[in-house]
Amino acid sequence: MTASVGVAGAQPASADPVTVTVIKVTTETNTRAATTAAAKKATKKAAVKRKKLSRAALQLAKAQRAVRTARKHIGDPYRYGASGPGSFDCSGLVTYAWRKAGVRLPRTTWSIRSAVRKKVSWGHFKPGDLIFTSGGGHVGMYVGHGRMIHAPHSGTRVRIDRLDSYRRATFVGAVRPGA
Predict the structure, then answer these.
(1) Which strand (E) or helix (H) includes residue 175?
(2) Chain segment 73-85, per-residue pLDDT in tens
């Protein structure tokens, strides 16, 4: 019996049916392997992109929680060295709010500013960013729409104020915790 070689799937009358089937299966397996490899590569690429997006989304969620926590304490009295929950000084308020959001910060304004790596320039604030003014001795949390929540000084209460010309003139930096 003579065997002839044909195209996979095409079966000449004299060709052995087993040989044609093996060629067809091998071709399908190679196609699946190539498709699987491409799918794995695409999945890996998507996972890397998803990971970057989820880090930003996670920071945003924490920032929103920190802002909500700080807002709950509007009206609480200022007390030097207090870190809540009944009274606060400026750094006590922001460390308390961010701790409730799952981010630990140092206690003082200077140590917070140096510890948080993500620096933010004026005008690029997002809710939750910490704004340092008065030579670095005061900190407040940006809440959006050109406003910040803070515990101003003795004799006052936690409140929301506009980022006015005084704050702009005494601005020394801002950071984005959790980034």
Answers:
(1) strand 173-175
(2) 999 999 999 998 9
Task: Give the catalytic positions in this structure.
Answer: 90, 138, 150
107 DSSP 8-state letter: S
Q: pLDDT tens digit string along 40-65? A: 676 666 555 555 568 889 999 999 99
Q: Dmax of the chain from CA atoms?
A: 107
Helix (H, G, I), strand (E, B) or coil at 171: coil
CA–CA separation, 94 vs 112, rounded Å? 10
Both structure tokens of 157:
């209460």
Q: How many CB atoms lie under 10 A from the CB of residue 150?
A: 27
Taking the CA atoms of residue 124, residue 130, residue 134 and residue 135 in that order, the dihedral angle to the nearest 10 degrees is: -90
Distance between CA atoms of residues 31 and 73, nearest Å: 63
CB-CB neighbours of 161 under 10 Å:
14
Which pTM was predicted? 0.70
